[in-house]
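ok so for the tutorial part 2 we go from a plain amino acid sequence to predicted structure tokens. step 1 is just haveing the sequence, like this:
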Amino acid sequence: MREALMGPVNRTLGWLQARERQVLLVTVAAQLLILVGMIALRALPLITGQTVLVRVEPVDPRDLFRGDYVILSYPFSRVPPDQIGALSGEQLSSKKLEGRTVYVPLVPDSNGVHMRGGTVTLEKPASGLFIKGHMKRYGSMEFGIESYFVEEGTGRRYERAIRDRHLSAELAVTSGGQAALKSLGIE
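step 2 — the prediction. this is what the tokens look like for a chain of 187 residues:
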């Protein structure tokens, strides 16, 4: 029995040893392809997305281990508790909605410069600019644009601007709703 098993193992090892260089090259190429693909997926909104400006809301941004960065929240990042039932078309608690994909249409703000969120929905909008996210606990939503690393020593300036509501985020949004944070601007 043991000899019957060792025959295929020895043949496989012999095949791998004869093609060691090719196997190594294919393995390295596959790893590089995976890394480039991961980077490309994150960069897709920056390359193909439409650029919009949205207002930022204050959040406590303290974390000593990550360096200078700011945590961002947006007016459209929260669904008021009374609208969660309307969001789903049935009476669901925020716990039952947790993890669900949500869509927020982006519509021009009254100032004509910024965009603001429209009515949150579980259905992908048929047209127009929208941002895709996921429901979290207690009516909050996450879009992947909630933190931004800044130049060392400038974090406090951005925190002040957020508190004073003078910070805007420039987003790139694809036609599928994927968003990427391009930059922050202090007004």
